[in-house]
Amino acid sequence: MAKKAEAILNPFITFEGGEGCGKSTQAKALWQKLQQQGTPAILTHEPGGTILGDKIRYLLKKKGGVPISAQAELLLFASARAQLVNEIILPSLKRGEVVICDRFADSTTAYQGYGRGIDSTTIETINSSVTQNLKPSLTILLDIPAEKGLARKQSDAKDRFEAEELVFHQWVREGYLKMVAAEPERWLVIDASLPQAKIAKIIWQRVNSLLSLQRGINLRHD
Question: Any idea which architecture 2-221 has in CATH?
Fold first, then answer.
């Protein structure tokens, strides 16, 4: 029990949002900022981040690939997440690194729950198991209307999710906003239409406060 408490003392920060919201750009910017500050940090992503996860990512994202049912999609994401938690996230947290993850379990609730219509009890049970009940210290939602986010995607080579109907993406956004309303203390919601530099500044202010609080906790434990 003590080991688990020690592991989650280190900040675990996740980025969420619909297609075209810019979360990957901001996750990388935050990681670079932490590096510049001399704070040990790693940047990873879902699905992927491991050899197994990258293979699963290919199957999940490839448009026109093998047909994947909603239930199979849910379990493929869960498999990739289980590997990422065991291989990358938990070991990094235990080493004292800040972990930044581009998507995590909330994506499954939004996409496979609100988007695909899989019941919340099933998703909660699976997420809880594969994450070993690990929850982010802070989740940053870059919020943008679905049609505006999709319009940012210039490439004709859309993946399976980008190619979904607009209503699917609207359901996903609605799901995110409902999660925020249910657990506001964990979320930082930012208007994704703001300039990138402004978004990065808002994120850094919140993360810097989190790190300052964390340092205070660690000092009290020393």
Answer: 3-Layer(aba) Sandwich (3.40)
